[in-house]
Amino acid sequence: MTALPSTSLRSLISCAPVFVDLSASIASARALVALHQTQYLCVTREGSFVGMVSSERLDSADSGAEVGDFALFGVPVVSITASVKEAMKTLSLYRQHALPVRDGEKVIGLITVSDCIFGLSHD
């Protein structure tokens, strides 16, 4: 019997990344979340990815604060070449609901636990 090809991580990315600078105000970050109807923003410094912030963390923040005050830094990044199983292990190990996916140095999307469950169930 011939094995079916594994589901690619690229095909499971459920949302495009939305970027916000770490010096941006919480109010402007909340506006981005609303505009893009997303739960996570990728935080940048001088155009480079440095972390993430969730809409939940933004909701609990003072509007006058900066994104960098509430961002999570050192967030693991999943390579586009990783398997769905590897992505799920990383999400689980770091107790994250979503992680950025990189193609080279560029963040191309976010992968969620739900995306991985879907991929594993169709593998």
Describe the structure.
By secondary structure, the chain is an alpha/beta fold. The protein has one domain (9-121): CBS-domain. It is 32% helix and 27% strand. The protein has 5 helices and 7 strands. The strands form 2 sheets. Strands 1-2-3-4 form a 4-stranded mixed β-sheet. Helix 2 (26-36) links the parallel strand 1 and strand 2. The chain is elongated, with a radius of gyration of 15 Å.
Quick structural overview:
By secondary structure, this protein is an alpha/beta fold. It is 32% helix and 27% strand.
CATH topology: CBS-domain
Return Rg in Å: 15 Å
Give average pLDDT, whole number.
Answer: 91
Give the termini separation: 15 Å
Largest sheet: 4 strands, mixed
Could you name the CATH class?
Alpha Beta
Q: Biggest sheet: strands side by side, in what order? A: 1-2-3-4
Q: Quick one: CATH superfamily?
A: CBS-domain
Characteristics:
4-stranded mixed sheet, alpha/beta, 123 residues, elongated, disordered N terminus, 7 strands, CBS-domain, 3-stranded mixed sheet
